[in-house]
Here is the input.
Amino acid sequence: MLSIQNLKAVIEGKEILKGISLEVKEGEIHAIMGPNGSGKSTLAAVLAGRDFVEVTEGIVTYYGKNLLEMTAEDRSKEGIFLGFQYPIEIPGVSMVNFMKTAVNEHRKHKGLEPLSASDFLKLMREKKELVEIDSKLANRSVNEGFSGGEKKKNEIFQMAMLDPKLSILDETDSGLDIDALRIVANGVNKLKRPDNSIIVITHYQRLLDFIVPDVVHVMYDGRIVKTAGKELALELEEKGYDWIKKEVEKNELTWTSSLK
Amino acid sequence: MGKKQDNIIDEVTSGEYKYGFHSDIDTDKIAKGLNEDIVRIISAKKNEPDWLLEFRLKSYRHWLTMKMPTWPNLKVPEIHYQDIIFYAAPRQKVAPESINDIDPELKRTFDKLGIPLEEQKRLSGVAVDAVMDSVSVKTTFKETLAEMGIIFCSFSDAVHEYPDLVKRYMGSVVPYTDNFFATLNSAVFSDGSFCYIPKGVRCPMELSTYFRINSANTGQFERTLLIADEESYVSYLEGCTAPMRDENQLHAAIVEIVAEKNAEVKYSTVQNWYPGDKEGKGGIFNFVTKRGMCKGDNSKISWTQIETGSAITWKYPSCILRGDNSTGEFYSVAVTNNHQQADTGTKMTHIGKNTKSTIVSKGISAGFGQNSYRGLVKVLKNAKNARNYSQCDSLLLGDKCGAHTFPYIEVDNSTAIVEHEATTSKIGEDQIFYCNQRGISTEDAIGLIVNGYAKEVINKLPMEFAVEAQKLLQISLEGSVG
Here is the structure.
């Protein structure tokens, strides 16, 4: 589904991604871990189509199409969803209006008729229950006055509404207490199907107890330096990122994940 | 990929002013410039009675003693009055009896603007007075309204057919000495709409006037007079467009509204005069005096305006709350993009007892636009229990525009309660990207955000026009976020 080959990217002249290669197949859950500044969020930004990141080298294909040539909104309509690390507030725009516009844009892209008002409200009710989001939250302006946890739940709610093929969850667990974490993870798991995939970006192993990954990658200094199964997350939790750092320095090589 | 942070949003110029065409119509124009002879010519062309000519001359002579005010937060280039043509009228042989008598080119113009001149289009249910270049071209539904005793016709017609009404009310709300541009208007006004709603009548349809400036080098000086007699109700809508030209054109109009006891008037304006090009060349100077007098007890006047056009907008639709328990309202969305400027707001003067006023002003600045809100809430000594609520918000798109607020509060009665709130906000790239990532294009995102911001005001418009206003807002801001 997603193929990243030797991706390099720069922000304001500074190279952040130094050659990322990654393959995600349908049905897989990948976790990307790494210390602050390793480039995890930058990778998410590149995949979502954020303009301030300049790609200097590399290829990214999504179902065979060149992802880097697509606008952010087209990527979304093709099924890519980003759960933001810091969801932004949009005062004056109701969640209902916002989601209705988004959902209908997606439907238009697929050649479907827009949802009627009543069908849309039905969909909202369904998804609200699924991800256990408070009814009141959905009636307010987008993220306005939401607590950190509410914002993260709202991201998962939007994910449920848009039913993406590839979800990139950027530190969705940050700022969540254990109960909220469980609710968010449950929501994500309920949306999981054999034909969609998730990339979970996180610092902590904790989330991965609930959203169990098939593959774990560790990023350091703009590269993926280690790739393994879910035990890697546990090892990381035990030994800390310093362990990775030392390994990298020792080898003076970059370890990349397996490629075809 | 790889655009710099500053250029995140492309400079899309697809939002072209679509009313920029001009029509080749046989036009009757007089020589340019202004002097007493010109005033007499204008009056003669309209066959006006002596009392009206006297009014004009009195105004003209007074105008000569006045100077253009310099206090607004506007950079107004010098206006050369002797280069302006003060009268231009589409040349029509005889007053058209039916739609078929109207110059076809004129009809085409209004068709292009989407304005229904055909009474057969009853779906719209709106009575329209179409004014092209200062002359009222056609007023629809005149007969239907006449059956109810409602007078809706051109100002010029009203002068001839209802002189007593005109004499009684004209200048009673905006006296000829009021201000520089009002005085000028009083000397050279050409036409406009006249509306009278008789006692106890609730006007069954929206009344509407579309103003279109077509000829070059002319000024447009309409005069509108709207009288709601006791217990009556009317909702009135004014729409304005003008072609794209390199020179500025002056629009100095006057609107007077009188609401007698228990009467209510809703006056809505959707103004889309040519705003000038991206470099600030050309565009209309919109210097208008609009005032409503809540004359009778329990009367109510509401002004709603969506101002997206004009190179320079300078207007303060106001209410004089003379009657006890009277109410004045002002709802405004004013957009300044590229090099547009606006100094606009309202004046609410509380005179009677238990009067109430509400002001909601939403300014939107983009490009290099400079948007100023100027409002006055004045409570006179004997105005017991006056209440005012003012909310003045500014939205900035980009970092080269400006929003300014000049609220004035003058209260001379200790029982008054006056509230004022203000906010300033920005549309950030992060907000736009959030929308993009959900599949919403940048244009639609701006539309969503701006309309969410302006919702409160747009909801005050008659439904048919609310949708147009939303689209207009979105178009007027295309290419503006960066």
